[in-house]
Specification:
alpha/beta, 10 helices, 14 strands, three-stranded antiparallel β-sheet
């Protein structure tokens, strides 16, 4: 089995190393437009194999090396410009959409049966762009956002309560950004509803911090996060190649779920060997549904910008 990661920046390299470290496949192929970067990072990763005890071979190729990715079971797209201080995700749309389109077309040319995980920003719209470029069923093209956002939400709750994050269960919906919708009604700590442990005003502060989770890191270090996003993408790869049927929040193309169609939005799904095996259509309160629709409107506005570019 072969898995490809396109983009050898911080997120892509972290993702590729996690995939290799978990021995999820025979070979990980790392692709980057900058000649020598993917090759160098792949060689460095492969040299950790004797130390960390994995057998997955790591190979790096430049922009002309897509033939080396042929037959990939899963492809993760992290290629694109990173966010910089003061830059919104929406500012990235034109340049990154062109990159995602070209990458997706190369992927499908060499791996027509691949499942595609999009990590490039703005996430929801880049997932939509990849879906349009791939011209394959929507269960095979989806974005990584919800696992990362949920992880941040859980981490903040764990810090607040001074407990391990391992026993925290949580869920969120909507776009990847400040309109995302964390759901306290689906949040618990070892089965205990979170509202029994954290006061409502403090919980809302945690939710706000989660919604700005990426921006907080950009402000601190001057560039986007990479450890958590890369690891989150690798977790999705694991669910697919091991056919775990895990329930994760991912950015999926909706076809009537939550009363919406033709939009890429974060929702809980069952993830397995076929990609999205099922979209879970939750029963939301009126307030939660209203928040989701507000988030969907923000995503749709940016999708419309892409449509107006007539790139597809």
């Amino acid at each position: 089995m072969k898995i490809t990661v396109v983009g050898a920046g911080n997120v892509g390299a972290t993702c590729a190393h996690e995939i290799a470290r978990k021995d999820l496949c025979n070979e990980v192929v790392l692709v980057d437009v900058r000649e020598g970067v993917a090759q160098g990072k792949a060689l460095d990763m492969w040299q950790t194999a004797p130390i960390q005890g994995f057998s997955t071979r790591v190979t790096g190729v430049g922009p002309e090396g897509y033939d080396k990715t042929a037959g990939s079971e899963v492809v993760v797209i992290t290629a694109g410009l990173p966010r910089k201080p003061g830059m919104s995700r929406d500012d990235l749309i034109s340049t990154n959409a062109k990159i995602v389109k070209e990458v997706t077309e190369n992927i499908i040319k060499h791996s027509p049966d691949a499942k595609i995980i999009v990590v490039s920003n703005p996430l929801d719209v880049m997932t939509y762009a990849a879906f349009l470029a791939a011209k394959v069923p929507s269960n095979r093209v989806f974005g990584m956002a919800g696992i990362l956002d949920t992880a941040r939400y859980k981490a903040f709750i764990a810090s607040e309560l001074n407990v391990s994050p391992i026993g925290i269960e949580a869920l969120l919906l909507g776009g990847h950004g400040d309109t995302m919708v964390p759901l306290p009604s689906y949040t618990s700590v070892c089965g205990i509803p979170v509202r029994q442990l954290i006061a409502e005003d403090r919980l809302q502060e945690i939710i706000k911090r989660t919604q700005n989770g990426g921006g907080e890191i950009v402000a601190l270090q001057g560039t986007s996060a990479w450890y958590a996003p890369g690891t989150a993408a690798a977790q999705m790869v694991e669910a697919i190649v091991r056919d775990t049927k895990s329930v994760y929040p991912v950015c999926a193309m909706l076809n009537g779920e939550y009363g919406m169609k033709g939009i890429a939005l974060g929702v809980p799904v069952v993830l397995g060997k076929n990609g999205i095996e099922k979209i879970i259509d939750l029963k939301l309160t009126a307030e939660e549904q209203a928040q989701l629709e507000t988030s969907a409107k923000a995503v749709k506005n940016v999708m419309n910008v892409l449509d107006e570019m007539k790139m597809f």
